[in-house]
Amino acid sequence: MARLVVEQPGPLALVEDLGRAGFAHLGVSRSGALDRGAARLANRLVGNPDGRAVLEVLVGGFRARFEGAETWFAVTGAWGRVTLDGRPVAPYAAARARPGSVLELGAAERGIRYLLAVRGGIDEPPVLGSRARDTLAALGPEPLAPGRVLAIGAEPAASVPLIDQDAAFPPAGGPVTLALLPGPRADWFTDAARHALFETPWRVTERADRVGVRLVGAPLARRVEGELASEATVPGSMQVAGGGQPTILLADGPVTGGYPVVAIVTPASLDVVAQVRPGQEVRFRHA
């Protein structure tokens, strides 16, 4: 049976799929790969169905050894030096590893999260129907550690495609633009604040993880003061705390929140958020 032996996980390497939808009533968020487009593409490149589990590797510094059988793999998402037995591997393309081959993901030069798919998918025990690691609720497979052996699932019926229709582009290294929908509490903010949200630049802070990304810019002044009762949130909800700085909730964010949500980042733009780095400039447009 094919398997992947982790030799060095880097700062954070997680098993992720497309998440566990439908459990918000239990207080369980969707979770899953933050860059869903990159996860789907990685799976498609090796002939997997969309929902097969992949590895999400933060920043790089990851090294693993293939064992048991020859295995197709593909790396998408972040852009950096990827090698197999010391030889460069093309990004966003399927490659084949022999037993004993060592895969390394170097420091990401663009973006921040690699997505690694293997043909057959990572075969960890599912929790609530998903193999995703939820870092806030501590559900799903544990973060990877040296020596961890990951089973690889049975090969799918589909063959590895000869070519893929999507061109490979690295994540943006400069300013990014995200599309916003109106939030349920947009009317809690002044006209000037809603104007500033779209007309002024924001910057990603170091307070960024799978739960949310904090931005800094011109404080968003509220029209309505006072406390807000907890209400539902979804990935992409932009909630604004008392200081007027927004936080974009991501896949591991809570299902309820107590701060007003001024806007909601569209699903396509959430894939962009998954790859932004601290210090990177962000601007917004109307969806």
TrEMBL record:
Highest taxon of the lineage: Bacteria
Pfam families (alphabetical): CT_A_B
ATP-binding keyword on record: yes
Membrane-spanning residues: none
Domain Carboxyltransferase: 25-287
Keyword field: ATP-binding, Hydrolase, Nucleotide-binding
Database matches in InterPro entries: CT_A_B (IPR003778), Cyclophilin-like_dom_sf (IPR029000), PxpC (IPR052708)
Keyword match DNA-binding: no
NCBIfam families referenced in this protein's UniProt entry, alphabetically: urea_amlyse_rel
Name of the protein: Biotin-dependent carboxyltransferase family protein
Source species of the chain: Agromyces humatus
